[in-house]
Amino acid sequence: MARAHRMTSLATLRGRGQLLVLYAHVVGVLACAAVLTGSPDLVPITVFILPLFFASHYLGPKHLPWYVVFLLGIMLVCVAQRQRSDLRTAIGVVVVFALAFLVLRSSFRRSRLGVSGPRGESMLVDLRDRILSQGMLPPLPAEWYAETALRSAGGTPFAGDFVVASRPGNGRRLELVVVDVSGKGEDAGTRSLLLSGAFSGLLNALPPREFLPAANDYLIRQDWDEGFATAIHLSLDLCTGDFELRAAGHPPAVQLVAGAGRWVVHPSEGGTVLGVLEDAEFPAVTGTMRRGDALLLYTDGLVENRSRDIALGIDRLQGQGERLLRTSMDDGARRLIDKLGSRNDDRALLLVHRR
C-alpha cells in the first residue's frame, strides 16, 4: 500500500512538473511573439523570472543551460527593442542575470546526479523510506512485544543510527541489530543508507555468530575516511526466551528482570568497533528473558553527552525505565527516547518485552 502511494505521488509530481515546464515555454513563446509583433514594452522584465524558476526545478541538467541561454537571449532582444529604458529596467535585467547564474551553477552541480531537482528529491525520499523499512519489526507471537524509536540530530529525516530486523528460517528466532554510524544527522545519512541494505542482507543470510565479523569485513572493504560504526546484535529464541548478545564497541544492553524487580546491565565483552580491525572477534553474552522481562538496546546518543559520562547516562536510563515502564510497556520506546539523550545527536532505542 505504501509503495503504491509513493508511486502515485511520483507520477503526480512528474505530471505537475510537465505542466509547469509547458507553462515556462509558453511564457517564452509569448515573449518572442511580443518582440516579433513590435510590442516589447508589453513584456515586463520580471516575467522572465517565472519560466527561469520553473525550469530550474523541472528541467534536467542536460536541457536547462540551453533553455536559460535561450530565455536570456529573448530578454535582451526585448530590452534592445524597447522605445525607452530606465533604471527599473536595468535593475530587472541585472536581477534576472543574477538568478540565471545561480540556476546554472545549481544545474552544473546537479549534473553529477543527472536528474532534475524534484526527481532527485523523490529519489532521496525513496531511499529514506527504504532505510526505515529495513528496521520494520516482523510480526511476533502474542507473548512478545517489540518497538523501535529513532531520533536524528536537528530533526532531519536522515540519521546515522538505524535498526535492522529479521525473523529468518522457520520464524523461531528474532534477529535485531542496532547500529550507530560515525557522524550524525545528514552527514552520516548516506553511509547509513548503504549499510542498512548491506546489513539487512547479511542478517538474513548468515548465522548469528557470523553476522558481526561479516559486517566488519564489509566496512573495511569500503575504505571510507570516516568508516567505522558500532553495533549490538540480539539473537532471541522466541520459544524459550534464551538470547545471545554480541556488541562491537557499542553501549551495553539493559534488561529488566521482572522476577527480581531490578534492571541489569549486560556488559559488552570486548568487541571492537566495526571497520577498524581485520579478523576482530565478537564474543557472545547469553541470558534468558522470562515473562515480564524487557530488554533495551540503544545508541550512545541516548546515554552520553559532553558533560555526562556514559555510566551515569545508563543509570539514568535505568531510572527512567523504572518510572516510565512500571505500568505498561506499550509505546515505551517512544516515551523513553523523548525523555533521554541529547537533541544534538542521533538516538535509537529498541525495546523488546515478553508479556
What does this structure look like?
The chain has 355 residues and is α+β, with helices and mostly antiparallel strands. The chain folds into two domains: 2-120, no CATH class; 135-354, PPM-type phosphatase domain (Phosphatase 2c, domain 1, 4-Layer Sandwich), CATH 3.60.40. Helix content is 46%, strand content 19%. The protein contains nine helices and ten strands. It has helices at 2-36, 49-58, 64-80, 87-110, 117-134, 185-205, 208-222, 310-324, 332-339; strands spanning 144-151, 161-166, 173-181, 229-237, 242-248, 253-257, 262-266, 284-288, 294-298, 347-354. The strands form two sheets. The chain has a five-stranded antiparallel sheet, covered by helices on one side. Strand 4 and strand 5 (242-248) form a beta hairpin. Helix 8 (310-324) packs across helix 9. The longest helix has 35 residues, at 2-36. It is elongated, with a radius of gyration of 28 Å. The two termini are 30 Å apart. Mean pLDDT is 81; it is low at 1-16.
What is the gist of this entry?
By secondary structure, the protein is of the alpha+beta class. It folds into two domains: about 1-120, no CATH class; about 135-355, Phosphatase 2c, domain 1 (4-Layer Sandwich), CATH 3.60.40.
